[in-house]
Design goal:
This protein is α+β, with helices and mostly antiparallel strands. The protein has four helices and 14 strands. The strands form two sheets. Strands 1, 2, 3, 5, 6, 7, 8, 10, 11, 12, 13 and 14 form a twelve-stranded mixed β-sheet that branches. The protein has a two-stranded antiparallel sheet with strand order 4-9. A hairpin with a 7-residue loop joins β12 and β13. The radius of gyration is 16 Å and the shape is globular. The relative contact order is 0.25.
Length: 223
């Protein structure tokens, strides 16, 4: 079981609680993957909306998630890292999303780096699998291959690299450290509060998979 790999509030997208494969495809070990988009106290992914939001791309720095610390979700050992991919402009505009969607096949042909962007993989204790943290900010990785990590320790920052339309964190558990051949493994998180559909009063959860569209925050851990 994993801890949520961040502090503060994050919006849940592409949750395996809604469907499997969670991202609509079963490649690169992402069958049970889940996405988290950082939000502010009003559950907004970005406090600014202007003409760029509707007609163009937006700088990643505009978004709450960009640059937030990413924490180790479990004790383990780093077995793979990749850095150097650029952080892309964000695309909330449907006009901006069209050319991006048309380039999806080309990114897949370019390989793991073009899709996952900057990422790292941690081997979980006891040979129970590997957890990948994906779309990290370029130059933010604080650990390297062979480093032991403890749950809750900062290891990188959230970015918008790879196949990303806005800054977010993609988390998946796999049976291999190599995303190119890995098969996805079901995941589970411990000790968090959840705002269903981002509204109302939060409910504490001792374990589970957050629902699509909910906002979550680790219990006992704030920004």
């Amino acid at each position: 079981m994993l801890s949520l790999p961040f502090a503060g509030r994050w919006l849940v997208q592409n949750s395996p609680a809604r469907r499997v494969p969670s991202h609509g495809v079963d490649v690169l070990g992402e069958r049970y993957a889940i996405d988290f988009v950082g939000v502010d106290d009003r559950h907004r992914t970005a406090p600014v909306r202007d003409w760029r939001t509707f007609l163009a791309t937006e700088p990643p720095e505009r978004f709450a998630a960009f640059g937030r610390p990413v924490l180790a979700p479990a004790d383990g050992v780093v077995v793979a890292t990749h850095d150097g991919e650029p952080d892309h402009e964000a695309r909330r505009s449907q006009l901006a999303l069209v050319p991006y969607a048309l380039g999806q096949a080309a990114r897949l042909r370019e390989g793991v780096g073009a899709v996952a962007g900057n990422h790292l993989v941690v081997a979980l204790p006891g040979g129970t699998g590997f957890v990948a943290l994906v779309h990290l900010r370029r130059g933010s990785l604080r650990v390297g291959v062979g480093d032991a990590v403890r749950a809750g320790h900062p290891i990188a920052e959230c970015g918008s690299s790879g196949n990303s339309t806005q800054p977010h964190l993609h988390v998946q558990v796999m049976d291999s450290a190599d995303l190119a051949v890995a098969q996805g493994v079901p995941l589970d998180f411990r000790d968090f509060r959840e705002w269903r559909r981002g509204r109302g009063e939060p409910r504490p959860r001792a374990s589970g998979i957050p629902d699509e569209g909910s906002v979550v925050e680790p219990l006992g851990r704030t920004q």
